[in-house]
Specification:
The protein has two domains: 173 residues; 154 residues. The chain has ten helices and 15 strands. The radius of gyration is 24 Å and the shape is elongated.
Length: 328
Amino acid sequence: MEWFIVVIDGEFSVLEYLYIGPTPNHMTTSMFPETFQAPRLRHLILLNTAIPIGTPLLITCVGLVTLSLQDVHTSAYFSPNNLLQRLSPMLHLETFRISFDAPRRELLPTPMTTTVTLPNLRWFAFEGPNAYLEVLLLHITAPLLEKFQILFLDPRTFRVSCLLQFMNAAENLRFGSVKFRFSAGMVDVWVYPRRGIRRCSFYMRLGSFFILQQLLDTAQIFRALGPVGYAVEHLDLEDESHIVLSAGPTQWRDFLGTFRIVKSLLVGHRLVRDISRSLQLDEGESPTEFLPELKELSYSATSNAGDAFIAFADARRIASCPITLSRH
């Protein structure tokens, strides 16, 4: 790698794609030649390297379509403001991904002087400190964004209002169908524009060990998203953990109640018992008060606990608000 860095000290007039990394020993600032030029570079991927933000790669290559800075080494850490300054002239950028190889406890306070509009950005992925993400969301506008990914978000220290502001400016981000996968240590959330679409428009992974905390965290985010979160019409719930679930009917009710207009609900094998208990009506409770728009309820055919859904379906039918009950 050191030999390679030494020899790319000139102009590469037809180079369009450059991938560097990972390297056994992280490169330092002095290693990368300042005389490197690639005026036609369109795709740049740096994986687990320590190339600084001030490298000619990021200063002169303003025509980038793809920029992926993965596992940025601690020694090459740069402030959000410095990153925004590099992104500002990249008007052709369509894919942008950034992740840090180790979390930073604090984001050093620096004056934010740069606000960036990326008119062609379609895909944005981020993994790193919440404070860093908040700054980017408040200072980047991507009107044509189609896919947004956040890894290991901590909602207890994250201002969801920043996320709402960013999403409101993205005309193509739509929430119609959501799939939750609960597991030990995390919950994955895929959001699709509508049911039946395979490509998700929003993905996030939350690091919460107990399922009760997972329910609280995800519900908190969707409630804070307001009209964006309330537009969900289809829910798909799965659980891949082998631990005893610690959430009761009340917690599941609160979680499901977040999605006010949900019309179809798909329940995976390990969640059938808990979800069915949450749908049991209290004495005197109207069957149309909870999930009033629900029309379809499907649950795993491998579970024997789904019979409790039948009572809920019968009550809805008697109330002239029937639902279609099926096993999948």
